[in-house]
TrEMBL record:
It comes from the Eukaryota. InterPro entries: Leu-rich_rpt, Leu-rich_rpt_4, LRR_dom_sf, SDS22/Internalin_LRR. Keywords: Leucine-rich repeat, Repeat. CDD domains: PPP1R42. The keyword Hydrolase does not apply. The keyword Repeat applies. Residues 266-289 are annotated as: Disordered. This is Protein phosphatase 1 regulatory subunit 42-like.
Length: 312
């Protein structure tokens, strides 16, 4: 069994470079960032000598339990995605924790977050759930996060409703792709509670096939005025670009077939080119005023959005 211990830290290359100038005790006391990702670690040992630790990377390991972190009162970022964790526990002492990454584990209930009064980002996407089960939320934890949580990633968790998340009124970014959301009335009610929502991604949910789902969700959002106006502007621009593209194809077909060529046709219309990008990493989340992109309907249209983004 590979355990994360102070001796393992002592063997790390970073300490080896400084061991001649300071003792292990001094090194551990000064340590603020610790990266032991993808090291086949199964257990966290006593690291209480690392009292000034602020960022801990333990993703891509084989850890089954969150433990021995009670000392880390200065920890602000904890990365434990892609492990074997089944329960969120032993985090009550991490009062300064602002970002928690637990995606790709075996968690069935989002709980144990009651004391995390500084948590702004929570990532629990892609849990390895038992067949037919969905990720559920402990109401005490959600209530405790209602004044702080801004970014939530719950994608790929077989979730079919969002009622329990309604208290998260400070939410600005929600990633809920690849779930089973389909009740548009429920979504309208929940979204109407989130006055600060700026990015919403519901791609690959059944609700995306509902008639006029986008119009209804835009109306429910509190950022309706900015979103709707920009949406209509971009829709018209997209429609005009498509018309130019179709006209250009028409010209090519006429030239290719001399029997139907119209020699009075003027200059060929230019083809519209579209730049695209995606928010693929947690570190790339947008800030107010930054241009976001909206992924369009099943025909692949995309609309640029100045302040709010609806992707579904």
């Amino acid at each position: 069994m590979v355990r994360l211990t102070v001796h393992l830290i002592a063997k790390s290359s970073n300490y080896s470079k400084t061991c001649r100038s300071e003792s292990l005790q001094q090194y551990l006391k000064k340590l603020t960032h610790l990266n032991f990702s993808n090291k086949s670690i199964e257990e966290i040992d006593d690291l209480s000598r690392c009292r000034n630790l602020t960022v801990l990377y333990l993703y891509d390991n084989q850890i089954s339990q969150i433990c021995n972190l009670g000392f880390a009162s200065n920890l602000t970022h904890l990365y434990m995605q892609n492990n074997n964790i089944s329960c969120i526990e032993n985090l009550s002492s991490l009062h300064k924790l602002s970002k928690l990454f637990l995606g790709g584990n075996s968690i069935t209930v989002v709980e144990g977050l009651d004391e995390l009064k500084s948590l702004k980002e929570l990532h629990v996407e892609g849990q390895k759930l038992p067949r037919g089960e969905k990720l559920v939320f402990d109401l005490r934890s959600i209530s405790s996060l209602s004044e702080t949580l801004c970014i939530l990633n719950i994608s790929k968790n077989n979730i079919d409703e969002l009622w329990d998340l309604a208290p998260l009124r400070k939410l600005t970014h929600l990633y809920a792709t690849d779930n089973q959301l389909q009740d548009i009335q429920e979504l309208e009610t929940v979204f109407s509670q989130w006055s600060q929502l700026r990015l919403l991604d519901l791609n690959r949910n059944p609700v995306c096939h509902k008639p006029k789902y986008r119009d209804r969700l835009i109306t429910a959002l509190k950022c309706t005025e900015t979103l709707s106006r920009q949406f209509l502007i971009n829709w018209k621009a997209s429609k005009d670009a498509k018309k130019k593209l179709d006209d250009g194809k028409d010209v090519k077909e006429r030239i290719a077939n001399p029997l139907t060529t119209d020699f009075r046709v003027g200059p060929q219309h230019p083809f519209a080119h579209e730049r695209s990008s995606s928010l693929s990493k947690p570190s790339e989340y947008g800030k107010p005023g930054v241009t976001f992109r909206v992924h369009g309907d099943s025909r692949g249209k995309r609309y640029e959005q100045s302040k709010c983004l609806l992707s579904c």
